[in-house]
Amino acid sequence: MSQRTLVLLKPDAVRRGLTGEIISRIERKAGWQITALELRNLDQETLELHYGEHKGKPFYEPLVAFMASGPVVALVVEGERVIEGVRALAGPTDPIAAAPGSIRGDFGVIVRENLIHASDSEESAERELKIFFPGLT
């Protein structure tokens, strides 16, 4: 089943010069296609919409500050089982638990700065794509 998902390469990935490596891993996956890509700085409104469900949790403020600390690369990726697949490619949030070969397993350093965001369900992907790429239908 073909799907569409949001992927964010977070400020640590951009700062560390890993965007090309991460994008190439996505591009090499047979059947997946990047259909939109944009380098942008995230404003407070966008961050609150994206992370609003976490407001009030201890990690919310540090997470929003981190995501506002530099540019991100926002991508729309389409393909067969792409939501599940990109999350597997990213690996678990904890870089120590992430397997070698995954993005976080190969390049992750700490849990909070974990290089990549990928929608976790079709519902999340639909909601997040409307935030970051409102012109897409």
TrEMBL record:
EC number(s) per entry = 2.7.4.6
Subunit annotation: Homotetramer.
Gene Ontology molecular functions: ATP binding; metal ion binding; nucleoside diphosphate kinase activity
Role, per record: Major role in the synthesis of nucleoside triphosphates other than ATP. The ATP gamma phosphate is transferred to the NDP beta phosphate via a ping-pong mechanism, using a phosphorylated active-site intermediate.
**Uppermost EC category:** transferase
Q: Name one GO cellular component term.
A: cytoplasm
Protein's UniProt name: Nucleoside diphosphate kinase
Name the reaction it catalyses: a ribonucleoside 5'-diphosphate + ATP = a ribonucleoside 5'-triphosphate + ADP; a 2'-deoxyribonucleoside 5'-diphosphate + ATP = a 2'-deoxyribonucleoside 5'-triphosphate + ADP
Key words of the record:
ATP-binding, Cytoplasm, Kinase, Magnesium, Metal-binding, Nucleotide metabolism, Nucleotide-binding, Phosphoprotein, Transferase
Q: Where in the cell is it found?
A: Cytoplasm
InterPro entries attached to this UniProt entry: NDK-like_dom, NDK-like_dom_sf, Nucleoside_diP_kinase, Nucleoside_diP_kinase_AS
